[in-house]
Amino acid sequence: MTSPQTPVLQARGLVKRYGHVTALDGADFDLWPGEVLAVIGDNGAGKTSLIKALTGALQPDAGEIRLDGEPVRFRDPLDARRHGIETVYQDLAVAASLDIATNMFLGRELRKPGVLGRVFRLLDKKRMREESARHMAELKIGLRSLTQPVESLSGGQRQGVAVARAVAWATHVVVMDEPTAALGVKESGQVLDMIRRVRDRGTPVVLISHNMPHVFEIADRIHVQRLGRRVAELSPGEHGMAEVVAIMTGALQVSEGKAVVADQGAARAIGLS
Amino acid sequence: MTVTEATLPRRLISTPVAGPLAALLLACLFFGLNTGQFFTGPNFSLIIQQVMVVGTLAIGQTLIILTAGIDLANGAIMAFGGIVMTKLAVDSGLPALLAIAAGLAVCAGFGLVNGLLVTRISLPPFIVTLGMLNVVFALTHIYSAEQTVTNLPAPLTFLGQTFRLGQTNVTYGSLLTILLFLLFAYLLGSTAWGRHVYALGNSPEVARLTGIRTRRLTVGVYTLAGFVYGIAALLLVSRTGVGDPQAGQTDNLDSITAVVLGGTSLFGGRGMVLGTLVGALIVGVFRNGLQLMGVPSIYQTLITGILVILAVAVDQLSRRRNR
């Protein structure tokens, strides 16, 4: 992909070691404005470590991260959030017994103006509900009531709340870790629609997923992570699903934009040779 | 896309306090119909006096249980706080207000230690407070030399004094207890801090990832609970008029009983402090009513035990149905 713009989020040469295990081995990363970038990779390829490094959940041992071209260093997830990078974590998105509006504003509550808020710390629940309703409407998430606890929602609606919260606060990037993993077909469809709407609003999305059909349905580009590095950046239009999987597992290698058979046996086994 | 507010009746029914409140009202109705003295001002004043110490302990217990913790040491901490207040004032001749402040600080200090052990060394709250129960119990007996402290100066017994409300004498301590419940209902229900306590109890990891400083919050909750135990100590001292090293030995479990009867989940993140008030009142009303009916006190304990199991069973069943 050629673009005159600077990447929204970029990483060069990220390294992360845990004792003898190398999770990231000089990983690069580029996220361009307005795109949905899927990050795929086998288990242990360093996907999670890469995403954690980009969202402040771990500190890389070496390498550089740039946000809008400026070098940044995130001390913790909160720090990354302050820079406008919002993450929707798999299974860890919402507080189950709290209602939707409270979840939307968790950690960023609005207080009543004046003495009530300043001295008595009184929350402005009405305004938080109204703004939550607006955010939910923007993503076309239909809900009966914003005062119902999140645990009474379906999995898809719950994911919707998490996505809506991320989108509401993200000024730069939304990162989603396996957002459809626990969902049924219909609900997955709703979440994919939501991701499209987020992109169409102009916020780039990083999508970590194991689900190739979903990746091919929604991603503008695919970042393939393998053995702690980025081994390819592909476009779903130019490469087939089997080919992408083969690159992911190492059966094919990419050199100068062309897929080359690296492991004859493996390639033949999945029907590519 | 429609967003509607839950209507008031629906919200009343869905609030976790509805069940306990209904139980309390039914109990009152039952004892009112069976004994003549039950529905009188003085009797209600007595019930509140009888539950105010455990009720106040149960406020701190509620805070900790909401974070998915538990505090087995609160009765012991209260007893120690009471001894500190009375001994400093009587034996060491400290001004009474200073002695009270010292007692409150000591109780908050034990809470702080509990909180630090839970967060910094990641010990389970059950273990930390079980150990602390024994430590504080021993300290109480060592420091007091097994002696009851008497002849307390006026400020230490002030909360036991009464004022007249219509025909009824109400103690200042009862009033303070009610005010504390209202204060914590406000803090938990209407401030960001309260929302964070619930979020923490739901899932510490979710809370952390939304930017809540979960360790600091946990330490704060334990410390605040300790401070509230200090207030319970003052209530206890002013109610009994002595500093008693034997006090509060079953109050840890009684405070958990009140929390559970009030509909708060022992798994954290669900419940309300006003429910705890209702839970404490249920215990108080049953003891009082059964006593008025001439039922021996050991049967009161029996019935309290059955109530706890019943309350949790009903809670579990209703939750299963909701799923």
UniProtKB/TrEMBL annotation, chain A:
Segments forming domain ABC transporter: 9-252
Entry-linked PROSITE patterns: ABC_TRANSPORTER_2 (PS50893)
Keywords assigned by UniProt, alphabetized: ATP-binding, Nucleotide-binding
Protein's name in the database: Fructose transport system ATP-binding protein
A GO term for molecular function: ATP hydrolysis activity
Entry keyword Ubl conjugation: no
Signal peptide segment: none
Automatic annotation (TrEMBL), chain B:
Membrane topology: Multi-pass membrane protein
UniProt subcellular location: Cell membrane
Protein name from the UniProt record: Fructose transport system permease protein
An MF annotation (GO) of this entry: transmembrane transporter activity
Membrane-crossing segments per the record: 12-32, 72-90, 96-118, 125-143, 170-188, 217-238, 258-286, 298-317
Keyword check for Membrane: yes
UniProt keyword terms in alphabetical order: Cell inner membrane, Cell membrane, Membrane, Transmembrane, Transmembrane helix, Transport
Record carries keyword Zinc-finger: no
InterPro entries, sorted: ABC_transp_permease
One GO CC term, this protein: plasma membrane
Annotated Pfam families: BPD_transp_2 (PF02653)
